[in-house]
Amino acid sequence: MTRIRYDLIVVGGGAAGMMAAITAARLGTDVCLVERNPKVGRKRDVSGKGRCDVTNHCSPQELLSATPRNGKFLYSAAERTPPSWVEEFFAALGVPLKVERGNRVFPVSDRAADIIDALFRELRRLGVPILQGRVSALDCREGAVCGVELGEEKARTGLACQAIILATGGLSYPATGSTGDGYEFARALGHTVVEPRPSLVPLEVPGEDCPRMQGLALKNVQLTVKNQKGKAVFREQGELLFTHFGLSGPLVLSASAHMRDFAKDRYRCHIDLKPALDEATLDARLVRELTQGANRDMDNLMGALLPRLMIPVVLERAGIPGEKKAHDLTRGERRRLLEQLKDFALDISGPRPVAEAIVTSGGVKVGEVDPRTMASKKVRGLFFAGELLDVDAYTGGFNLQIAWATGRAAGEGAARFLREAQ
């Protein structure tokens, strides 16, 4: 089999892979990018609701604080490639950026395609070939990588090299190509892979309450998540969505990153439907509504306080028949209604499958990777970048920032390794 040769092969054309290839090429490395999809950067099309939250406008220390999973591993990469560097990088590529709520950074155009196109243009300018194909195996000889195999066994193409950067992503959004191949490559070369599981993922809720409210989006509510000991592990205000299986939406995705051990712990979501009002103020408003609408049925009167789909659920939880007249409401019933408005609680049975997660938690064990260069400590010439590593952060542009930072570190590390090998 004839083997085409490159100094460096980057496997995976997502954020980390494109950054790694650009970085290495800028340093004069003969690099080839291999992507299984017809186009690079497909996962960016679904990030930030299609707008692509490129990074978070924060300090390196704030990035580490927003990375509950192995944040310390990122110290060197975050200092070398902070969010400010990423913002300057894209500005130089002709993509103006803006900062929005939560310090999220988006393209001014609100188009994820602008980010992908800018990276693609830079790859072309640098002369980096992009080969479409699925890597089926990594070749290794005497403890060092020496090539990759593309395609199936009967029609396999070989690419020779001296270094490989694996940036194949995790298991989230498999339709974009993140199918976990990189985990198998890493295992085959002796690396430990921490069992992948979903992070930034919708949550499943037992019972019929959520399905009855399917499609209802609540804005400006406060979500508090408590573990089985009653300790609050998350509290934030924002938007969530009821679905046929449970809960989704920005608040829920953020909360899920703090619910890190469903095997040993149990979690309960507490939704404050009226966070701007304390209990006394809300009770006074309830009394006013009940007085003004004394002859109205409760399911009709509650339209002033709740969305239509939520009214029967809240009334049932409070033990109040929908046809009951407001003037017949007892003090105890009013109290129970107040409690539901300030603490609409839902038990969580678990996360949705990893395929529905925004990012994957778990991956290549970071203790087996040099945090400065992303080089494998087990195989010469092998480097890792992006979601394949056992590092994940909260929502808000932090995970993409990790991809840029580790991709750049891997690109620089591989370029240095190749220079020293000459």
Concise account of the structure shown:
By secondary structure, the chain is an alpha+beta fold. It is 30% helix and 24% strand.
Structure description:
A seven-stranded antiparallel β-sheet has the order 18-17-14-15-16-13-19. It has a five-stranded parallel β-sheet with strand order 7-3-2-11-21, covered by helices on one side. The protein has a four-stranded mixed β-sheet with strand order 1-10-9-8, with no helix packed on it. The chain is an alpha+beta fold and 422 residues long. Helix content is 30%, strand content 24%. Helix 1 (15-26) runs parallel beside helix 13 (398-421). It has helices at residues 15-26, 60-65, 75-80, 83-92, 112-125, 181-188, 209-212, 250-256, 279-292, 298-301, 311-317, 331-342, 398-421, and strands at residues 3-5, 8-11, 31-35, 55-56, 97-99, 104-107, 130-132, 135-141, 144-150, 157-160, 163-166, 193-199, 203-204, 217-227, 232-242, 246-248, 267-272, 344-348, 350-351, 359-364, 382-384. It is elongated, with a radius of gyration of 25 Å. It is built from 13 helices and 21 strands. The chain folds into two domains: 3-197 and 356-421, FAD/NAD(P)-binding domain (3-Layer(bba) Sandwich), CATH 3.50.50; 202-351, Helicase, Ruva Protein, domain 3.
